[in-house]
């Protein structure tokens, strides 16, 4: 299984744009995420499930992995744990539909740095990614 | 003592006079005045002759009963058979005269020709004016004076008819008689009576033989022969015999059947005969005597001839000589029949048969019962088996149903969550992106649409959560139970939830099972118990995992509740499926405690979920 062809976009304002790997089983969601992130970040790759992501993360060396939780096969929490076990240095930002504190806690325990609920993608994702890149945590406001 | 002479006392006076006279007159006159009846019976036979014995047994009884007053009974026996000398009769006469000179008889009964002649010839000297009744063998016998008699019609020949009936093949009749005068007289009578039968039988008269010769002869009689015993009181050698004892001899030695003419010979070895019934003769003469004693004049009763014969056979002798019993004529008496086994043991045989029948019936009944019982048991076993099978099928179906339901709920929940929520989230995102490029009015509309879409996301999320909490799969049992705790709190039921040493990760089906059991228990507590304090404990141990849900509600009657609600059944089913067990303790008014235990082995399934 190979990753989708990366669409590297140079960030004019920053000599070193954030390298992002987008992992979600929904193409539309990847598209929206890429659209939100793109001027500032480089989407080095996308993956439709956890296994794919784990396969390409070593090669693509993203700074931040944007990770969905509910996916077929391995869920995002498991993927995050696996990444940590693999020794990946990429920060993880969960992009999920779960608007729930327990998930936030679980996400942090799994090694997540940022937590963005999908409906707030437009406003929060970029911030979360940048904060993650800077080693800071960001969590969307939960309803 | 002065007795006043009054009217009516004359009778008294006469009575006293009478008494005085009685004291003075000779004794003979006194006899006439009292109530005693004096009877003299004179037999023509010796005292121990059968006829005498029967007479002495019967006559006093007959007279006593018939008279209903005191009876003076006297009897004498003239044994001319053994004492034929005329001087014997003279001596007897003198003896009787002397003996009874003081006795005034009311009647004299003469038994037999000899006695009748004796009375007749001594009428004037001894029996003057005494009524006489007599029993005679000879129709010429008469007694002078006031007398009446019965003449026995002695039919020796009628026995021949019986012989003819019983033994049609008999040709020879050997007639046995003795040498005494009476014996010879019998033979004479027999000869005359047998004359008409000479064409049928050949008669041989063994008269006056010596005993030894006679016995020899009788032992070697030719075929088709019978013996006819008439009377032997003395044999040719002059030896005297009791006629009945002699019958025994004859019947014992004879190689052919012996017949006779008198019933006293029965039971002495004879086959039978048309027999003169002596006791009947005694009864008849007794009745005649009673008539006279009751006042009838003897000479007013004419002398009559009577026939008292009855055909009789001895069953034992029929057997001895192989004479067919079917030949015995109707009306003949068959005596001494030895009772057959049937006759002898009929009661026992019938009893045993009845018992056997009852027993058989009982046994049959029991067997039928047993067969029925076995059949019923078989049916019961079959139906139990069928019941168990169908119960197991139902359980299996229930299990499958639960599984299917759970699967379907999971599928729909995922669908809702992963697809619809995702789509609506995309809608929210797109609307949000569009928003910055819109006019204020359109922006306001977009905001409204975003809000609505977010509401939809929330609703779908809730619906999905209710169907199958994604947290269960993605985070784990503790988090899911905590959610449940919040939900119940929102419904107004505060719950204490504690967990300790819960082993991780747990198999997904086990997680789901425990969650559903807790959910069911809490819903029951909420709906029915009215509990104010509910606690949920999840505790891992060295043996396994224990989930306890207890409340302080109203509780329930286990027996009644069991099987009514699907809740308890589905709990059981779910736990069965994962290898767990559960116990419920509850009593009305004492709350409910549900304890679920899952052994360690069941916790080590392959399908696991993360925390």
Name the descriptors:
heterodimer, A: 143 residues, alpha/beta, Rossmann fold, 5 helices, 38% helix, disordered N terminus, B: 611 residues, 5 domains, six-stranded parallel β-sheet, five-stranded mixed β-sheet, 17% strand, rod-shaped
Summarize the structure.
The complex is a heterodimer of chains A (143) and B (611). Chain A has 143 residues and is an alpha/beta fold. Chain A is 38% helix and 22% strand.
Protein described:
The complex is a heterodimer of chains A (143) and B (611). Chain A has a single domain (18-139), classed as Rossmann fold. Helices cover 38% and strands 22% of the residues of chain A. Chain A contains five helices and six strands; from the N terminus they run βαβαβαβαβαβ. Chain A has a six-stranded parallel β-sheet with strand order 2-1-3-4-5-6, with helices on both faces. In chain A, helix 3 (76-86) links the parallel strand 3 (64-67) and strand 4. In chain A, helix 1 crosses helix 5 and helix 2 (50-60) runs parallel beside helix 3 (76-86). Residues 1-14 of chain A have low confidence and may be disordered. By secondary structure, chain B is α/β, with parallel strands linked by helices. Chain B folds into five domains: 33-153 and 278-306, Rossmann fold; 158-277 and 307-335, Rossmann fold (3-Layer(aba) Sandwich); 346-374; 382-468; 471-603, Heat Shock Protein 90. Chain B has 20 helices and 18 strands. In chain B, helix 13 (341-435) runs antiparallel to helix 14 (440-467) and helix 17 (508-529) packs antiparallel against helix 19 (566-578). The N and C termini of chain B lie far apart (156 Å). Mean pLDDT of chain B is 85; it is low at 1-10, 13-33 and 606-611. At the A-B interface, helix 1, helix 3, helix 4 and helix 5 of A face helix 13, helix 14, helix 15 and helix 16 of B.
């Amino acid at each position: 299984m190979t990753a989708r062809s990366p669409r590297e976009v140079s960030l004019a304002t920053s000599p070193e744009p954030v390298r992002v790997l987008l992992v979600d089983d929904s193409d539309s969601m990847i598209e929206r995420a890429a659209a939100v992130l793109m001027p500032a970040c480089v989407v080095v790759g996308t993956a439709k499930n956890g296994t794919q992501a784990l396969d390409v993360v070593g090669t693509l060396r993203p700074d931040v992995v944007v990770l969905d939780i509910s996916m077929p096969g391995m869920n995002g929490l498991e993927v995050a744990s696996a990444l940590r076990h693999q020794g990946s240095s990429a920060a993880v930002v969960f992009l999920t539909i779960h608007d729930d504190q327990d998930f936030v806690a679980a996400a942090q325990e799994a090694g997540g740095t940022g937590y963005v609920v999908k409906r707030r993608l437009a406003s929060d994702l970029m911030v979360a990614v940048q904060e993650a890149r800077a080693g800071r945590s960001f969590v969307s406001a939960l309803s | 003592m002065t007795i006043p002479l009054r009217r009516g006392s004359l009778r008294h006076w006469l009575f006293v006079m009478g008494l005085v006279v009685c004291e003075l007159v000779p004794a003979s006159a006194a006899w006439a005045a009292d109530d005693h009846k004096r009877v003299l019976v004179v037999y023509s036979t010796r005292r121990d002759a059968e006829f005498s014995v029967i007479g002495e047994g019967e006559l006093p009884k007959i007279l006593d009963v018939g008279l209903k007053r005191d009876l003076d009974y006297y009897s004498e026996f003239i044994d001319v058979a053994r004492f034929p000398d005329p001087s014997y009769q003279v001596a007897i006469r003198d003896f009787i005269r002397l003996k009874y000179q003081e006795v005034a008889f009311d009647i004299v009964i003469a038994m037999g020709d000899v006695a009748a002649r004796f009375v007749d010839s001594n009428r004037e000297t001894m029996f003057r004016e005494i009524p006489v009744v007599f029993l005679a063998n000879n129709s010429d016998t008469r007694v002078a004076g006031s007398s009446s008699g019965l003449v026995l019609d002695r039919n020796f020949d009628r026995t021949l008819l019986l012989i003819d009936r019983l033994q049609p093949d008999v040709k020879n009749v050997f007639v046995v008689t003795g040498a005494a005068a009476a014996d010879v007289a019998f033979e004479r009578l027999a000869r005359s009576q047998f004359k008409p039968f000479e064409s049928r039988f050949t008669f041989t008269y063994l008269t006056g033989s010596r005993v030894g010769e006679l016995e020899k002869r009788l032992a070697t009689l030719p075929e088709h022969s019978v013996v006819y015993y008439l009377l032997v009181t003395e044999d040719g050698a002059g030896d005297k015999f009791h006629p009945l004892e002699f019958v025994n001899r004859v019947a014992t030695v004879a190689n052919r059947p012996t017949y006779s003419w008198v019933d006293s010979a029965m039971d002495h070895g004879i086959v039978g005969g048309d027999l003169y019934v002596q006791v009947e003769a005694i009864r008849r003469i007794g009745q005649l005597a009673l008539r006279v004693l009751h006042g009838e004049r003897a000479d007013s009763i004419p002398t009559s001839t009577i026939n008292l014969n009855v055909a009789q056979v001895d069953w034992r002798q029929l057997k001895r000589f192989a004479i067919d019993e079917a030949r015995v004529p109707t009306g003949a008496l068959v005596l001494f029949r030895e009772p057959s086994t049937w006759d002898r043991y009929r009661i026992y045989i019938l009893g045993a048969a009845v018992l056997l029948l009852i027993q058989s019936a009982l046994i049959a009944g029991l067997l039928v019962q047993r067969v029925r019982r076995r059949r019923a048991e078989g049916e019961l076993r079959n139906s139990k088996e069928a019941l168990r099978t169908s119960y197991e099928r139902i359980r299996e179906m229930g299990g499958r149903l639960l599984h299917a339901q759970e699967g379907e709920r999971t599928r729909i929940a995922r669908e809702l969550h992963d697809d619809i929520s995702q789509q609506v989230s995309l809608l929210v995102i797109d609307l949000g992106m569009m928003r910055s490029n819109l006019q204020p009015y359109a922006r306001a509309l977009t905001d409204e649409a975003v809000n609505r879409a977010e509401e939809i996301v929330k609703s779908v999320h809730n619906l999905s959560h209710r169907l199958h909490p994604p947290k269960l799969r993605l985070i784990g049992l503790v988090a899911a139970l905590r959610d449940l705790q919040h939900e119940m709190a929102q419904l107004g039921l505060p719950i204490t939830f504690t967990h300790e040493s819960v082993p991780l990760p747990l198999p997904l089906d086990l997680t789901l099972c425990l969650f559903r059991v807790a959910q069911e228990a809490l819903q029951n507590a909420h709906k029915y118990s009215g509990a104010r304090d509910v606690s949920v404990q999840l505790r891992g141990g060295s043996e396994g995992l224990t989930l306890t849900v207890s409340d302080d509600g109203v509780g329930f009657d286990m027996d009644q509740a069991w099987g009514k609600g699907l809740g308890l059944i589905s709990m059981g089913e779910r736990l069965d499926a994962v290898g767990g067990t559960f116990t419920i303790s509850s009593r009305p008014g004492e709350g409910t405690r549900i304890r679920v235990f899952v052994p360690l082995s069941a916790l080590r399934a392959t399908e696991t979920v993360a925390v």
